[in-house]
Amino acid sequence: MDPWRAAIWSTTQQIQNAPSVQILQDLILQNSAMLQTAGCFRRVGSCEEKTRLVEEYLKWYIIHRNSTAIERFKAGLETLQFLTALKEHPTVLTPALCHTEVKLSAEQVENLFQPVLSPQGSNMRTQEDKARTYWADYLLDCEEDNSAVTLEEVLMFAAGVPCVPPAGMSPLPRLHFMSPSTSKFPMANTCANILKIPLLDSYTAFKANMDFGIKNSPGFGCF
User: Fold this and answer.
1) pTM surpassing 0.90?
2) Integer distance in angstroms from the first to the last C-alpha of the chain?
3) Number of H helices, E strands in the chain
4) Judging by beta carbons within 10 Å of its beta carbon (0-12, 13-18, 19+), is residue 188 exposed, middle or buried?
5) How far are the Cα atoms of 13, 22, 64, 98, 102 from residue 53, in angstroms, in the given order?
6) Predicted confidence band at 52 (pLDDT cuts at 50, 70, 90)?
7) Is 25 exposed, middle or buried, given 0-12, 13-18 or 19+ CB atoms closer than 10 A?
8) Domain HECT spans what residues (predicted)?
9) Which terminus of the chain is more exposed, N or C, with fewer CB under 10 A?
10) Nearest alpha-carbon partner for 44 in 14, 16, 58, 24
11) Catalytic residue numbers, as ranges
12) Would you place residue 215 in the very low, low, confident or very high pLDDT band (cuts 50, 70, 90)?
């Protein structure tokens, strides 16, 4: 949460939880500039008015303050009568337009990244198959909190997003393999949704290097 939103949240919580009229009035005076901007700065006569005061401010902050942007967004949705269809069938596009917090699973992440493999029977393919088992075990450890890294951090490192967007991912994520001479730590191309994992001799080394590489990546982090 950015500092400005954190300050607003803290202030509205203090007003909402004010135990007496005097404390409520003091809080209103302390935050007069904020409340005046929203047009809801006034003297209150009872604690019952605090809820309405907070509701008025939040309505201004969320809706009225952004009215121009909202109207432009609605105008854009009117193209090809999309807004009309959306009003008539509001639940159809809910998954695409409204964010839903869905916790990632190890199976989901494993299936998301399609491996790019060497020809069957080659020495490289044998190493890649072993690395795939390490990769699957690593994702399970992330899911079960047996790793310093979360599944969301794995996806952020590889694709620059902490969750799968409603419209899916394009290009489709791919899993590449690297020999130790190239790198012992994971690498990623977030523009192409490519994750490169090292070919190592043991799962212990693989897990330690994956944790270190993802946690110390300077490019992306979960926010």
Assistant:
1) no
2) 8
3) 11, 4
4) buried
5) 12, 15, 15, 28, 33
6) very high
7) middle
8) 154-223
9) C
10) 24
11) 191
12) very high
Indicate the pLDDT class of residue 167, thresholds 50, 70 and 90: confident
- CA-CA distance, 14 to 23, in Å (whole number)? 10
State the CB neighbour count (10 A cutoff) for residue 9: 11
Alpha-carbon span 195 to 176, nearest angstrom: 6
Q: What is the pLDDT of residue 92?
A: 84
* 130-159 residue pLDDT tens: 999 999 999 999 999 999 999 999 999 999
Asked if 157 and 151 count as a contact pair (C-beta separation under 8 A), the reply is no
Angle between the 203-215 and 151-159 helix axes, to the nearest 10 degrees? 70
Residue 20: pLDDT above 80?
A: yes
> For residue 51, which amino acid is it?
T
Closest by Cα among 179, 202, 198, 145 to 153: 145
Taking the alpha carbons of 104, 105, 108, 113 in that order, is the dihedral positive or negative? positive
State how far the Cα of 171 lies from the Cα of 189, in Å rounded to an integer. 11
Q: CA–CA separation, 222 vs 114, rounded Å?
A: 23
| Domain spans in the chain, listed from the N-terminal domain onward | 1-98, 106-216
C-alpha to C-alpha distance for 197 and 149, rounded to whole angstroms: 15
Q: Return contacts of 182-189, CB within 8 angstroms, 24+ apart.
A: 184/209, 185/209, 185/210, 185/212, 185/213, 186/157, 186/210, 186/213, 186/214, 187/213, 188/157, 188/158, 188/159, 188/217, 188/219
